[in-house]
């Protein structure tokens, strides 16, 4: 979500001699190349976009529907509906019972899954190439013909309530939910994905069907294919199965609110619980959107701050200046820098966990002092290190058809086009230390912050004191 764990492992090699021939005269085995692989897009008459990356050597494919609607498209009263629908999608349609649906997927050896985020809902399947038409048929069935039976709704209500209990035990999830809630107060982006427990208990079939009617429309959906499915074949399947989708979303109150620019509010939320042995603290400034010109500069700057985990064997040598200070002073168990983007805004910051409860102020001070340093003293070496890690992270994250489909769907839903890995690499290569310092001056220096803290946080100083560290002259 927030941070990219960065690693690089690029290898180049030459085959040795074969049959005594010099390397220059020997013909090697034919090897597939990705040089000609590109993302193709087609828009149907009703506005549905079909996007594919065809790999002729792939034996499997991932196909899925990326929908420009998540918890941000809900009202306070219906918060949790998108996630509830995701659960119900596999519980039977007008054509298939739940058992038939599960057997059909099982007999193909395919994988069918879904997830909900603040801005997207995704349904996808991974299967052998010859089973792609069946998978697209199943996807269209669960998207357009889900029965939403009252008995299934009641069963899933209990399942989601238990899921909510489990999420509340995951401190990182809790901290980030509260960070959104305080940074984007009283706004759709500040709500949780699962929704409050009272909403989960009260969501009705009418609210679920209204959410589908208002959001599952062709202009907000992208059918994605990655792997061994040719573009034109997927376009023909889309035309067959999805041509009946409504072409445009109604301008409901929830839709209009979801498209309104979110306002970042400097504030804090603290949940002190001394039975928790650690302090779990997230601090963030307003970040950048997916389409912001500074998007990749924000990621490079995040990589300079880096990550730290005391439990790792390389803890003393994790690269960033801050990790060295934290390790030497034994200030934290771990920290993770992050740059989370949305369609119109974002959160850029750091999440820290420490059991050194009397040194919380030192930990926060050194983290924010590092942010201040970025405004005026960044070396070429640390920018190059961050760029290399970022490029490797992006390339490694595209390993497999599901990861490629995810990248295509997310980019087209949020920005309207997919940047190729080569294009991204060129943009990152052109980022300089001057760009990083300009970004830091604009986004970090003396900017309001949002703070979310949970656990044994008595040692965390008040908001005004922490905010004052955002413009520290050394």
From TrEMBL:
Instruction: Please tell me where this protein is predominantly located.
Output: mitochondrion
Please indicate which superkingdom the organism of origin belongs to.
Eukaryota
Compartmental location: Mitochondrion
Write down a Pfam family by its short name: Peptidase_M16_C
Reactions catalysed: Release of N-terminal transit peptides from precursor proteins imported into the mitochondrion, typically with Arg in position P2
Q: What are the BP-aspect GO terms?
A: protein processing involved in protein targeting to mitochondrion
Describe the location of the Peptidase M16 N-terminal domain by residue ranges: 50-197
Cofactor(s), by name: Zn(2+)
Which GO molecular function terms does the record list?
A: metal ion binding; metalloendopeptidase activity
Q: Name one GO cellular component term.
A: mitochondrial matrix
- Has keyword Metal-binding? yes
**Keyword Transferase (UniProt):** no
EC number(s) on file: 3.4.24.64
Please provide the record's keywords in A-Z order: Hydrolase, Metal-binding, Metalloprotease, Mitochondrion, Protease, Transit peptide, Zinc
Q: Where is the Peptidase M16 C-terminal domain?
A: 202-390
| Similarity annotation | Belongs to the peptidase M16 family.
Question: What role does this protein play?
Answer: Catalytic subunit of the essential mitochondrial processing protease (MPP), which cleaves the mitochondrial sequence off newly imported precursors proteins. Preferentially, cleaves after an arginine at position P2.
Q: What protein am I looking at?
A: mitochondrial processing peptidase
């Amino acid at each position: 979500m927030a941070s990219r764990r960065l690693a690089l492992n690029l290898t180049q090699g030459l085959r040795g001699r074969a049959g005594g021939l010099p390397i220059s005269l020997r013909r090697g085995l034919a090897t597939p190349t990705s040089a000609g692989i590109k993302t193709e897009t087609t828009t149907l008459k009703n506005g549905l976009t079909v996007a594919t990356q065809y790999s002729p050597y792939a034996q499997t494919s991932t196909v899925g529907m990326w929908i420009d609607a998540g918890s941000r498209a809900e009202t306070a009263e219906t918060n949790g509906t998108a996630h509830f629908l995701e659960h119900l999608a596999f519980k039977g349609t007008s054509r298939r019972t739940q058992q038939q649906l599960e057997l059909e997927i099982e007999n193909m050896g395919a994988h069918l899954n879904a997830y909900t985020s603040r801005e997207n809902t995704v349904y996808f399947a991974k299967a052998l190439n010859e089973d792609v038409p069946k998978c697209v048929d199943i996807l269209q069935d669960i998207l357009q013909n889900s029965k939403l039976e009252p008995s299934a709704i009641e069963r899933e209500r209990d399942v989601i309530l238990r899921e909510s209990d489990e999420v509340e035990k995951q401190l990182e999830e809790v901290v980030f939910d509260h960070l959104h809630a305080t940074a984007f107060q009283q706004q759709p982006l500040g709500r949780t994905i699962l929704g409050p427990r009272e909403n989960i208990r009260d969501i009705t079939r009418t609210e679920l069907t209204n959410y589908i009617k208002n959001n599952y429309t062709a202009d907000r959906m992208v059918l994605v294919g990655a792997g061994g499915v040719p573009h034109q074949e997927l376009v023909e399947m889309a035309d067959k199965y999805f041509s009946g989708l409504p072409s445009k979303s109604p301008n409901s109150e929830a839709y209009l609110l979801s498209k309104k620019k979110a306002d970042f509010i400097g504030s804090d939320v603290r949940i002190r619980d001394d039975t928790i042995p650690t302090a779990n603290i997230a601090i963030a400034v307003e970040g950048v959107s997916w389409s912001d010109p500074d998007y990749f500069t924000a990621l490079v700057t995040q990589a300079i701050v880096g990550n730290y985990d005391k439990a790792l064997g390389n803890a003393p040598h994790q690269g960033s200046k801050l990790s060295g200070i934290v390790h030497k002073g034994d200030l934290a168990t771990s920290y993770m820098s992050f740059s989370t983007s949305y369609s119109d805004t974002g959160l850029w910051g750091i999440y820290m966990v420490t059991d050194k409860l009397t040194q919380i102020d030192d930990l926060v001070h050194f983290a924010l002092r590092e942010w201040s340093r970025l405004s005026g003293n960044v070396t070429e070496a640390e920018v190059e290190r961050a760029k290399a890690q970022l490029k490797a992270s992006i390339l490694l994250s595209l390993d497999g058809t599901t990861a490629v489909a995810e990248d295509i769907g997310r980019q087209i839903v949020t920005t309207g086009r997919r940047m190729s890995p080569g294009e991204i690499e060129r943009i990152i290569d052109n980022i300089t230390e001057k760009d990083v310092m300009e970004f830091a001056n604009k986004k970090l220096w003396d900017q309001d912050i949002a703070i979310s803290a949970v656990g044994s946080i008595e040692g965390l100083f008040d908001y005004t004191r922490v905010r004052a560290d955002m413009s520290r002259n050394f």
